[in-house]
C-alpha cells in the first residue's frame, strides 16, 4: 500500500521517533511535579479548609492515574505507538504516590492512632481493599529493575507483574467504596480500569480463536 | 450584623474561622465536592422565602420568612458540629429554638415527629439535576428532640446572615447528631404521627439511621466513629476522641433512656 493513503501509520511512526529521543528521566520528573505542587499548596495554605483530606485525595488520585496510565501503554502498542520504555517509570511513580497516600493516611489522617488503624485493617472493606492494592504493588516495585528481570526470567517476571491488574482494580474499588452515595469521579476510574483489563482479556481470547469466527 | 444574645448553651472552644465554615461544606444540591457549595450556591434566590408548616398543627399555612422569625429571640449558639464522615468543626450559629416556632403554630396532641424538606429548584441548585440523592432532601426528628432547647433553626453565623452554602436563609442545627440531620434551606415543616422518611436513610438504611446521634461506640459500617479530625487544627494535629452525643450527653441522654442505641442508630 502506498504510504500516502496511510497517513496514520506515519504519524504514529514519527511519534515513536519522538518518544525514542525522550529520556525516561523526563517521566520521573513529570511524575514528581504534581507531588511538589501538593507540597507547595500545603505549605502556602492553598488546599482549602481541610488540607489533610485534600492531600490524601490528591495523592490517591495521582496514584490511580499513573496506574491507569501504565495500563494504557500496552493497548497503545496494539495501534503501533510504542511507549514501553516508559512503563517502568510510570509504574514506579504510581507506587510512589500510593505509598505517599498511605503515609498521609497513617500520619496526617489517623494521627498515628495505631490501634484504630489496626481495627480498620480487619474491619473496614475499603481499608482492606486499599491495603491489598498497595501490598500487590510492593513486589512490583522491588522487582522493577533489570537485575530482577534477569534473575526471575522474562516470563516469570511478566507473570508477576500481572499483579498490576490487582493493584489498579483494588485502588479503583477502594475509591468507590469509601465515598458516600455514588459520585461520578470514582466510578470513572473504576470504569477505566475495567475497560483496560477487559480489552486485554478480549485480546487474549481473540488470540486463541480462529480469525474467521 | 445580626444582633444576638449570648447563650449559656454555647461551648467554650474556639470556633472555626468564617473561611473554614463557609468553604468546606456538604450540600449536595450544589455538588458533591466540599468546595462546590461555596462555588455554586450564589445562584440561589433566598428572598423571597417562605416555609410551609402543615400536618398536625393548629395553625397550618405558608409563612413568609419574616413571619417565621417574628417574635423569636435570636441567640448565638457556639456548637460542636460533627460530620458522619468523621470530621468536625465548632460553629457560632445564630438562631432561635425550634420549640419557639412549634409552640407558636400549635402542635396537636397526636403529633410525634417533625419532618423537614429542603427547597427543590434545580435551575438554581444544579446538583438536583442529577439523581445522586432523592430530592427534595428530607430530614426528621422525634418531637421531643425537636422541642429540646439545644435544637435551633439557624439564620446566621458569625454575626452574618446565613451564607448560602451553609443553608440560607434558614436551616436546622441539632448539635448532638451527625451533620446531615441538620437540614439546610428549609421550605417545609410537617408534624406527623409516624416516623418520616429521611434522605440518607432512604439511600442506605444500613449506614444512616433515623436517629444518627453522634456515638463513638457505634461505627458507621464502613468506617469508625471513635475519633474525628477537627478541621483547621493543622496538618499534623491528628485526631481527637469523639464524644458521646457529641459532648451533649448530659443534656440529651435522657431522651434515649431505655433505647438500644446500636439498634436505634
From TrEMBL, chain A:
Primary subcellular site in the record, as a coarse category: membrane
Record-level GO BP terms: protein repair
One MF term in the entry's GO annotations: metal ion binding
Subcellular location per the Swiss-Prot or TrEMBL entry: Cell membrane; Membrane
Keyword annotations: Cell membrane, Electron transport, Flavoprotein, FMN, Heme, Iron, Membrane, Metal-binding, Transmembrane, Transmembrane helix, Transport
Any single Gene Ontology cellular-component annotation: plasma membrane
Family annotation (NCBIfam families): PRK05419.1-5
Function: Part of the MsrPQ system that repairs oxidized periplasmic proteins containing methionine sulfoxide residues (Met-O), using respiratory chain electrons. Thus protects these proteins from oxidative-stress damage caused by reactive species of oxygen and chlorine generated by the host defense mechanisms. MsrPQ is essential for the maintenance of envelope integrity under bleach stress, rescuing a wide series of structurally unrelated periplasmic proteins from methionine oxidation.
Name of the protein in its database record: Protein-methionine-sulfoxide reductase heme-binding subunit MsrQ
Automatic annotation (TrEMBL), chain B:
Cofactor(s) listed: Mo-molybdopterin
Pfam families the record matches: Oxidored_molyb
Source domain of life: Bacteria
InterPro entries: MsrP (IPR022867), OxRdtase_Mopterin-bd_dom (IPR000572), OxRdtase_Mopterin-bd_sf (IPR036374)
Keywords (A to Z) from UniProt: Metal-binding, Molybdenum, Oxidoreductase, Signal
Binding site for Mo-molybdopterin: 25, 28-29, 83, 118, 166, 171, 182-184
Catalytic activity: L-methionyl-[protein] + a quinone + H2O = L-methionyl-(R)-S-oxide-[protein] + a quinol; L-methionyl-[protein] + a quinone + H2O = L-methionyl-(S)-S-oxide-[protein] + a quinol
Molecular functions (GO terms): metal ion binding; molybdopterin cofactor binding; oxidoreductase activity, acting on a sulfur group of donors, quinone or similar compound as acceptor
Domain Oxidoreductase molybdopterin-binding: 45-200
Function: Part of the MsrPQ system that repairs oxidized periplasmic proteins containing methionine sulfoxide residues (Met-O), using respiratory chain electrons. Thus protects these proteins from oxidative-stress damage caused by reactive species of oxygen and chlorine generated by the host defense mechanisms. MsrPQ is essential for the maintenance of envelope integrity under bleach stress, rescuing a wide series of structurally unrelated periplasmic proteins from methionine oxidation.
Subunit structure, interactors included: Heterodimer of a catalytic subunit (MsrP) and a heme-binding subunit (MsrQ).
Name of the featured protein: Protein-methionine-sulfoxide reductase catalytic subunit MsrP
Organism per entry: Paragemmobacter straminiformis
Gene: msrP
